[in-house]
Structure formats: C-alpha cells, structure tokens
Amino acid sequence: MTGSGLNITVWSYVDQLAISVLTDDLTLDDPHEATDAMIDALIEIRTAAGLSGELTPVGDILPLAAATG
User: What's 59's DSSP letter?
Assistant: First the structure.
C-alpha cells in the first residue's frame, strides 16, 4: 500500500473543533474506533478542567453538505 494507513486531521474555527479520520480497512475496521476514543478523551479533559463534558455535534451548528455522486 502506498501512502498513509491512517490520517487524522484536526482543525478549529472560532469555538469549534473538528476531527477527520481517514483510514484503510487494514489499519482500522471502523474509523469510529479512533474518533469515539478521541471524543471520550476530550470529554475527560474538559471535565478535569472544570468545564462541561457536553459536546455539540457539528450538524447542530452547521448544515452538513449533501453527498454528490
């Protein structure tokens, strides 16, 4: 395989943090394994800092783009 078996991109804008995980099926069966673990860790960090552990899904703030084929 050429390239990267796992790519994690994190970016922020204003008060939003976005995480994108790209992987092949040899590295992870399901990319949500990685994103779910990152979300759990972020909630733990926020709670330890005395902040709310509640996160707002991006779809609640920005409309999700429609898939095109």
Answer: G
Specify whether the CB–CB gap between 23 and 4 falls below 8 A.
no
pLDDT digits (tens, 9 = 90+) for 38-58: 889 989 999 999 999 888 776
SS3 6: strand
Residue reference for tokens 């991109």: 9
Q: Is residue 69 scored above 90 in pLDDT? A: no
> N- to C-terminal Cα distance for the chain?
26
The answer to whether residues 9 and 23 touch, using CB atoms and an 8 Å cutoff, is no
In 3D space, the residue among 39, 42, 3, 43 whose CA is nearest the CA of residue 22 turns out to be 3
Provide the token pair at 68: 């095109």
Q: Is the pTM of this model over 0.85?
A: no
